From TrEMBL:
Signal peptide positions on this chain: 1-16
Keyword field contains Transferase: no
Superkingdom in the source lineage: Eukaryota
Name of the protein described by the UniProt record: Alpha/Beta hydrolase protein
Organism: Roridomyces roridus
Domain Fungal lipase-type positions: 102-221
Catalytically driven reaction(s): a diacylglycerol + H2O = a monoacylglycerol + a fatty acid + H(+); a monoacylglycerol + H2O = glycerol + a fatty acid + H(+)
Record SUPFAM superfamilies: alpha/beta-Hydrolases
Single GO biological process annotation from the record: lipid metabolic process
Key words, A-Z: Disulfide bond, Hydrolase, Signal
Length: 229
């Protein structure tokens, strides 16, 4: 909580959350070496930048967290931080991939807290998630949040992949933003060609769905997900 608040206050928000261990698809937790921690550092900055509004992320002027990825080329951003969590999207030349990031929960924000406590699970919307097994159930609050920006993000990811000639997408987020990012990963994989590699790096990820969801994610994203505190 102290760490999250340091992000929110915007004071020395550098690496306010760090990826110290990685959970692989067998559910085992593997501590990361120093070099692996360094490898995840850019994603930590991206996840922290998810707390910045579009006026800052569009111009990549959010301060230390933007400066953590100085070569990033923002393409689109949105959200109002209340009804729709902030998000941004662009291209990282050094990581050679499209980055999509979602804001997490701000403590003072009643709407996003309400999303966190919407713990009733439901199937995913088949219009957004065609062919997803009916055994898959996701917490309503997370599914609702992801649905608000899904089509916008798909269109922007698709054009950004083509514009920069890359075929890798990494979605990132902290807390609620991690839950939206994981659902984005599932969603994008259903709509983009199999040649596009989708990965997710999440921090403080809450439980997103039921065992059916966990099994689906494990089967579809073997080795492509990293989760830290
Ligand atoms: C998952 O983690 C366990 C425990 O560290 C390790 O033995 C196993 O090789 C890992 N599996 C993969 C696919 O990385
Ligand atoms: C992605 O863009 C291509 C054109 O570059 C288009 O043919 C395709 O339908 C788009 N896919 C999605 C999912 O929007």
């Amino acid at each position: 909580m102290t760490l999250l608040l340091s992000v929110l206050s915007g004071v020395s928000a550098v690496l306010a959350f760090a990826l110290a261990a990685i959970a692989n698809q067998t559910g085992s937790i593997t501590p990361l070496s120093a070099s692996e921690v360094a490898m995840y550092r850019p994603y930590t900055y991206f996840a922290a930048t998810g707390y910045c509004g579009p006026s800052y992320t569009r111009s990549w002027s959010c301060g230390v967290n933007c400066e953590g990825n100085p070569d990033f080329q923002p393409v689109d951003a949105g959200g109002d931080g209340e009804v729709v969590q902030y998000w941004f999207l662009g291209y990282s030349p050094s990581l050679e991939r499209v980055i999509v990031a979602h804001e997490g929960t701000q403590i003072q924000d009643i709407v996003s807290i309400a999303s966190d406590v919407s713990i009733i699970q439901r199937p995913l919307d088949p219009a957004l998630f065609p062919g997803i097994p009916s055994s898959v159930r996701v917490h309503c609050g997370f599914a609702d949040e992801q649905a608000k920006t899904a089509t916008l993000i798909l269109a922007a990811v698709n054009t950004t992949l083509a514009k920069y000639g890359t075929s890798t997408v990494t979605v990132v987020g902290h807390s609620l933003g991690g839950a939206i990012a994981l659902l984005d990963a599932v969603y994008l994989q259903l709509h983009l060609p199999p040649s596009v590699k989708i990965t997710a790096v999440t921090y403080g990820l809450p439980r997103v769905g039921n065992q059916g969801f966990a099994d689906y994610v494990d089967a579809k994203f073997a080795g492509s997900l990293a989760e830290g505190e």
